[in-house]
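Progress report, Aim 2. The chain analyzed during this reporting quarter is listed below.
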Amino acid sequence: MYQFIVLMYHNFSDKRQNKYTLDFKTFNNQLDKLLVDGFVIEGFDGLLKRIKSGEWPERYVLITIDDGHRSNLIAAEILGNKGAGGTFFITKHYPNNQGDYLNQDEIFELSKIAHLGSHSVTHSNMTKLDPESLNFELANSKLWLEEITGQEITTLSVPGGFINSKVVKAAIDNGYELIGNSNEWWNNTSEIQHSRIVNRIAIRNTFSNHTLYKIINKDLKFFIGRKVRSGIISLPKRILFQ
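Predicted structure tokens for the chain:
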């Protein structure tokens, strides 16, 4: 059993738009810290290959970037220039409705320098969808990306981290080999091989270098704290919708 961390990013800008917006300098510095500390940085495509080969580096971390913001092109170039990898998860309807997202030509350009995965059609909560709608979100987003890139799409990031056994089964039935969630915990290879689910930690612009150090070194106190905080935040929703 091999353990590793997966980091989840979203968009990059010098103007803070939300808690997930990082400036490029911070992203660049975080990557440099990982590389100086001896980490091999890959995406879900690298993980699939290592699961099959059983060959693991001493220190290993995955980078994933959700939604398909236009800033992802620059992020992919930064990763490539450092000899690092990452997976970019694209939402189909975002480019059609908002100007800050990659258009189809840009998605094709991104696919030539980085690994891409699906982030659904509409970014809906998949756990609340009926079987027909769920299958549409999974199948149509996959086919759409395959037609743009000319590449097989076998990885998925579930929007909002909403996932259950119904979503996992439908994803596997639609040809996805790995499914990224938003469960802030580390991973081990035996669990991924069994469940196909990959835990990811969402990186926020409030995280200091010290916090990043805790994350990549699997600091138990930090991760338990995140679990407790997440439970407290979600408690009112659970009570309200009972």
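Confidence is low (pLDDT under 50) at residues 232-242. The longest helix spans residues 220-240. These observations will guide the mutagenesis work planned for the next reporting period.
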